[in-house]
Amino acid sequence: MDKETIKQIIKESQEEALPKLFSRQMEVPLDSKKIIAVTGPRRSGKTYFLYQLIRQLEEKGVPKERVLYISFDDPRLLPSTAKDIELILESYRELYPEHQDKVNFIFFDEIQNVTNWEVGIRRIYDTRKFTLFITGSSSKLLSKEIATHLRGRAIAFEILPFSFKEILAVRNIGLSKDSAYSKERFAIKKQIESYLAMGGFPEVVLEKDSALKVRTLKEYWDTMFFRDLVERYKVKNQALVRELMRYLATNIATPFSLNAFYKWIKQTYPTTKRTLISYTSALEDIGLFFLVRKFSFSLKEQTQTPRKCYIIDNGLRSVYGFRFSEDKGKFLENTVFLHLRHLQSTKPMMQVYYWQDYSRREVDFVVMDGRQVTSLLQVSADIGELKTREREISSLVKASQTLKCKNLIVITIDYEKQEKIGKNTVVFKPLWKWLVGL
What we know:
Blueprint: H1 3-15, E1 35-39, H2 46-59, E2 67-71, E3 80-81, H3 82-95, E4 104-109, E5 114-115, H4 117-127, E6 130-135, H5 143-150, E7 154-158, H6 164-170, H7 184-198, H8 202-206, H9 210-233, H10 238-250, E8 254-256, H11 258-265, H12 273-285, E9 289-292, H13 299-304, E10 307-311, H14 314-320, H15 328-344, E11 350-356, E12 362-369, E13 372-379, H16 386-403, E14 408-412, E15 417-421, E16 424-430, H17 431-436
Parallel strand pairs: 1-6, 1-7, 2-4, 3-5, 4-6, 13-14, 14-16
Antiparallel strand pairs: 8-10, 9-10, 11-12, 12-13, 15-16
């Protein structure tokens, strides 16, 4: 790496027009004293989110010369070390000496490709002359590692695949208070069917060919398997991990018992519980699966009770999970979970659990803000069936009494109503209305 090459790369990034952008709903501060680390699963849009932040700076009148964007995926910069980060800064200062006394903006994309990157980043941070933004691939850089390496200097923001509202914006489908009654609702309902089946990865959403959507999702799955898991964690028993991934993808929205899986799988793949725990933890770390704890006032019970499993994107489940029926209920519940996960990015004190009592009555989601339970959510694709309806309502009412929460909601496919059950009011709301906030 030499200064002339670096200067050329800097100039190229400043002269090139930004690509077409679809605004993401997540907001991050542009003037933070902390390092802003954008994390999330691969192909969820981290790089384009950096472009969005750069555009926001342009709209605020910040000259391009005060914005330094470097992608460490550029082969001209490889291999890179922490010393090369200092070389990049020297090159930038030589290009724009007139801006040395100002607080300028640095965007380092795919920072994990730099050996000992944290040393160089801490060096820049300590000068207090730059506002820093970094991204890293899940295959080599996790949010918990950013916290470890940067020791309180960084704030991590998680980018997920498109939310449903973001998809509507991409499709130029407007929302208003009258959307539920206007012709817009037909376009919205059409999109919800696609979202339930194929998910929200940006590249998949923008692809028109159905066969290519499936091929893209399969490519994502294989890449997550080989690069994020096998290479990163030096996985030896690849066949076992594939079975675990397929099992979890099939059984989303269901409590996952590691003991039960171990008893079943060890007959085919000799292994230990410790190995399975390690592999399951790795799948959580890379953001492919989420394991939600049961709500309990006892931390011990939370730790020892099976957790409910959800997947990062419905599309991955469609192409990889085993199913012999439409299975709409599982897709519906997974979609609700992902929306709650999006909300967590804007509400750092928000926590999500499921609830179950000793009579096996269950509530799909307990939403907390700090120490207060703010809402109880059931998800039901077959609310018209009497037994299902009674089961969902009785569980909500019991949880309401136990957790002292009056905000009771049942997310449905299309059913909408409010019902008075004793002292409680249960709100039945179609998924699409709940997702867009109507």
